[in-house]
Design brief:
CATH architecture of one domain: 3-Layer(aba) Sandwich
CATH class of one domain: Alpha Beta
Shape: globular
Organism: Lachnotalea glycerini
Keywords: ATP-binding, Nucleotide-binding, Transport
Number of helices: 8
Structural class: alpha/beta
Largest sheet: 6 strands, mixed
GO molecular function, one term: ATP binding
CATH topology of one domain: Rossmann fold
Radius of gyration: 18 Å
CATH superfamily of one domain: P-loop containing nucleotide triphosphate hydrolases
InterPro entries: AAA+_ATPase, ABC_transporter-like_ATP-bd, ABC_transporter-like_CS, ABC_Transporter_VariousFunc, P-loop_NTPase
Strand order of the largest sheet: 5-6-7-3-8-9
Protein name: ABC transporter ATP-binding protein
């Protein structure tokens, strides 16, 4: 199924512009995190556990106060309309006390851009029963429920933290296709963190790798795969895994 995500009348080139973000927790710090995400772009945000991916995402969403740096979303640094942003975190437990039907009723009341038809289509595709309470779902199915909610809210920017972990192969394929459809509209973009290299190879345009709170690589996937390991007879997933280890594991021999 191909989903049609309608424009919201937003004309933009750079959806995310993060410059020199710093946040010091004492035992861990983000150090001069800088990157941009252009409209029509899917950016894979990679790093080992504890590298700073989730902290960076929380910084973008103003869930933590940064010590230094600037963040502009949709070319705005203040009074950001967060209805333009759809977020799915790795832990999706915030709808646990509601059924799918109750979530639909609630979102219809509070979300000005709510697309009831899209929500019905996505929850049907994901086999989410309307009278089933979200707490009864597996963690993977909770993520699909959250994705259905945020997509139906008609955002322009999706920020996804480990969305595909916990999904079975069929659901992963269907979910990746939905993300491809989403960025067919130029004014849309996606930032997604993952440990699944196959997903990055399949849908990412740009790859950012974070290590110990710093960005160690920011490059287009196409250029990166051409530049690295170009003489080796390995597939693209294996190439990307090798590149990931080169940039994140100090003991790895290039």
């Amino acid at each position: 199924m191909e989903y049609c995500f309608k424009k919201r009348g937003i004309d933009m080139g750079i959806l995310v512009d993060a410059q020199s973000i710093c946040k010091d927790y004492g035992n861990f710090a983000l150090k001069d995190i800088s990157f941009k995400i252009e409209s029509g772009n899917i950016t894979g945000f990679l790093g080992r556990n504890g590298a700073g991916k989730t902290t960076t995402i929380k910084s973008l969403l103003n869930l933590i106060t940064i010590d230094k740096g600037t963040i502009k979303l949709f070319s705005e640094s203040a009074s950001i309309d967060f209805s333009k942003i759809g977020v799915v975190f790795e832990e999706c437990n915030y709808f646990n006390n509601f059924t799918v039907k109750e979530i639909e009723i609630m979102q219809k009341k509070i979300c000005k851009n709510w697309d009831q038809n899209l929500f019905a289509e996505m929850t049907t595709q994901f086999n989410l029963e309307r009278n089933l309470q979200a707490s009864k779902l597996s963690q993977g199915m909770k993520k699909l429920l959250c994705l259905s909610v945020v997509m139906s809210s008609k955002p322009s920017l999706l920020i996804l933290d480990e969305l595909s972990s916990g999904l079975d192969p069929n659901m992963r394929v269907e979910t990746l296709q939905i993300l491809r459809d989403f960025v067919k509209i130029p004014e849309h973009a996606i930032l997604f963190s993952t440990h699944i290299m196959e997903d990055v190879v399949k849908i990412a345009d740009q790859i950012i790798i974070v290590k110990n709170g710093s960005i160690v690589l920011d490059e287009s996937k196409e250029q990166l795969l051409l530049r690295e390991a170009k003489n080796e007879h390995i597939n693209e997933i294996e190439k990307l895994e090798k590149i990931f280890f080169q940039y994140t594991d100090s003991s790895y021999k290039r």
